[in-house]
Write a structure and sequence with these properties.
It contains 25 helices and 16 strands. The chain starts with a strand and ends in a 20-residue tail after the last helix. By secondary structure, the chain is of the alpha+beta class. The strands form five sheets. The chain has a four-stranded mixed β-sheet with strand order 3-1-14-15. A four-stranded mixed β-sheet has the order 5-6-10-9, with no helix packed on it.
């Protein structure tokens, strides 16, 4: 039975992304039943049933694409504003401390005359260095300097993260290039006119440096052609989400001359400051693209490559450059009508997250909250243990491996966040540009040095002030932020089953990622090794994958037109389903199950303008929020029992068409 989700605008919600504007319309395919969703019955559209009052009374603020959003970050923003104001009003801070940096940054930002300050000397110096580079080798050394000292991505997109083949070690990886000067390869692949943006922006940037319009235009066209060549070498993979660990090619620094024929890659890495021994082995996600980029690093492209470098500097530091070339660059900066104090608050929140984070944790997190959170996590883990143990359709060795992986999952919470070493930041000062640049240098230096350090499984992978949680397959950890451990998401003194349906569902979802179609190929230690699963179990899992793809694509549409991409959303859909199958085992009464189900639907409440959900369908790995509620509950047998769902109801799916991750 097909369910059409949506009207002219659609309601959505979530812990991810996006959509809707009137209550989500869940109707059966038969015209005679098209008004069922309007009944407000749980059996017809549970998402609307649970959120009806909120959605019916929701109003969009001017300029906003969302309303009635369960994941409201307003309280977090207000708390951060209070923290910053309190710090700025204080005194006697130790040099280099979080409070010292916040106060120094705030005051120097207020004092900085963005409209009249000339281009900062250090910035102008590196721009001139690029402009005057005599050959590719000299330009590459400047490229390395820009990465090291200015935090600007180079011609090779470098990152440091846990090695998926040796998870206890960090590894250097060259990520795929997916854009040139902010113009994505997706947009280039869709329409080559996107290349005009690269050419036009390049021409504008070069004119500020004294190039005549014809020369600047020519170099812009050359850079656009370079972008097209790199895009064409990407094998149809235009975003980083399109790459998987299967794509990684292992390279050896001492034996990669066949790729880097035009670049001394060892000298480049050493100039950045990477440890020589630690980067002897490194990974690359797209070898063919690397070969293409290398082929373009030749003298005949020198001027176009300089233009690319200058464009990256301008893009990253535009607000410090634009006022000196306002005639050319006025369109690249926007007027800010907020007060200087409001602007400074926003600057601190966006730039000094690492400094406000410990203060947020200290003020709004406690051992009591952490104990309650971890206790609920353990309940969820125990429910998963039963699910996995009872999954007799999997072989015993695979089940045992999954149980070992479950036991090895680590929770990372606000308790794990520590303050930094003040001595690293003690000498930072000067005007705001000087502060900003030196602060970034310290962070980049630590990032570069991390390559030679062991992986810390308890490292904080996302700011604690972010309303979110995440699973890291190589670390086999779940990070649960402080911001999502409070407010309407989790009340340590509140009803357990309301908590379970809200934050508990998020945790069960993240834990479910350990066993979803993407992450199940990592073993208990985080090693990427698809062969740890027995062949017969791989076949069984693939069969379930195929049925799940069909379930979402065949039964659910948006606006009656747009189908969810079952392949693209498979991992997230399985995490949702796995999490719900885990959760329903915990409550023992219908009353408690109802609390949990309704809290689950509340946690995904969001109303969005229709274009957002269309964009989500096209490119988001998460299903639209209304589907994340109704499609998941429509395939969970316990839900049918609790709400007496019968054939003919909007939420009904025939038993033979339902799916399961574990049963």
């Amino acid at each position: 039975m097909k369910k059409l989700i949506g009207a002219a605008l659609i309601c959505a919600m979530t812990a991810s992304l996006i959509s809707g504007c009137t209550p989500s319309e869940v109707i059966t395919a038969e015209p005679s039943e098209t008004a069922k969703w309007k009944s407000g019955r749980a059996q017809d559209d549970f998402y609307y049933y649970a959120n009806k009052e909120t959605l019916d009374n929701a109003e969009f603020e001017y300029g906003s694409g969302y309303a009635a959003d369960a994941f409201d970050e307003t309280p977090v923003i207000e708390r951060l504003d209070t923290i910053i104001k309190d710090v700025v009003a204080g005194s006697g801070y130790e040099k280099g401390s979080e409070e010292y940096l916040i106060q120094t940054a705030y005051n120097s930002f207020i004092a900085y005359d963005f409209e009249n300050e000339p281009v900062p000397e250090e910035l102008q110096k590196v721009i001139d260095e690029v402009k005057n580079a005599k050959d590719i080798d000299e330009l590459m050394m400047t490229d390395a300097k820009l990465y090291r000292d200015f935090g600007i991505e180079g011609f090779f997109i470098l990152t440091v993260d846990a090695n998926p083949f040796l998870p206890e070690q960090n590894a250097l990886a060259i990520m795929p290039c997916t854009d040139v000067l902010g113009v994505s390869f997706d947009s280039i692949a869709d329409d080559n006119t996107a290349l005009n943006t690269i050419a036009t922006d390049t021409r504008t940037y070069l004119q500020t440096l004294g190039y005549d319009i014809d020369t600047a235009s020519e170099y812009g066209k050359q850079l656009a052609n370079i972008a097209l060549e790199i895009c064409s070498s990407s094998d149809g993979k235009y975003s980083r989400d399109a790459y998987e660990n299967d794509d990684i090619v292992i390279l050896y620094l001492s034996d990669c001359d066949d790729i880097f024929t035009n670049v001394d890659i060892e000298k480049y890495f050493m100039t950045i400051g990477f440890d020589r021994q630690a980067c002897e082995i490194f990974g690359a996600y797209n070898k063919e693209q690397l070969i293409c980029i290398n082929s373009l690093l030749v003298e005949e492209n020198l001027n176009a490559l300089k233009a690319w470098e200058i464009g990256k500097i301008y893009s990253e530091y535009m607000r410090f450059i634009a006022p000196s070339y306002y005639t050319f660059l006025s369109g690249y900066v926007s007027d800010n009508y907020k007060t200087p104090e409001e602007q400074a608050l926003n600057e601190i929140k966006s730039t000094l997250t690492a400094e406000t984070d410990p203060l947020y944790v200290e003020r709004y997190y406690s051992k009591e909250i952490d104990d309650g959170l971890r206790s609920m996590c353990d309940d969820i883990r125990e429910s998963y243990r039963t699910l996995i143990s009872d999954a007799t359709w999997l072989s015993e060795p695979t089940r045992n491996g999954l149980l070992e992986k479950l036991d090895n999952i680590v929770y990372v919470t606000g308790i794990n966040l520590t303050r930094h070493d003040n001595s690293k930041y003690a000498d930072i000062g000067g005007n705001y540009f000087e502060f900003y640049l030196e602060y970034r240098k310290v962070g980049q230096k630590d990032f570069i040095a991390s390559l030679a350090q062991p992986v810390d499984r308890y490292a904080i992978l996302m700011p604690m002030q972010t309303v979110n949680a995440c699973y890291a397959p190589v670390r086999n950890t779940i990070t649960i932020t402080v911001a999502i451990s409070g407010d309407s998401y989790f009340d340590v003194n509140g009803d357990y089953y309301v908590n379970l349906g809200n934050l508990g569902a998020t945790i069960a979802h993240e834990m479910g990622h350990a066993f979803d179609s993407n992450c199940i190929v990592y073993d208990k230690d985080g090693v990427y090794n698809p062969d740890w699963i027995a062949d017969e179990d791989k076949e069984a899992l693939l069969a379930r994958n195929e049925k799940a793809v069909r379930y979402f694509e065949d039964n659910f549409t948006v606006f009656g037109i747009y189908h969810v991409d079952g392949e693209m959303t498979l991992g997230e859909n399985f995490a949702d389903l796995s999490g719900m199958e885990c959760l329903v085992r915990i409550p023992q009464t219908d009353e408690d199950l109802k609390k949990m189900f309704e809290s689950y639907a509340h946690s995904y409440c969001r109303m969005s303008v229709d274009i957002y959900i269309v964009d989500q369908i096209a490119g988001d790995v998460h299903s639209p929020e209304v589907i994340r509620v109704n499609a998941i509950l429509s395939t969970v047998d316990v839900f049918y029992d609790v709400y007496d769902v019968k054939e003919g109801d909007g939420m009904y799916i025939a038993p033979e068409n339902r799916i399961s991750r574990w049963h």
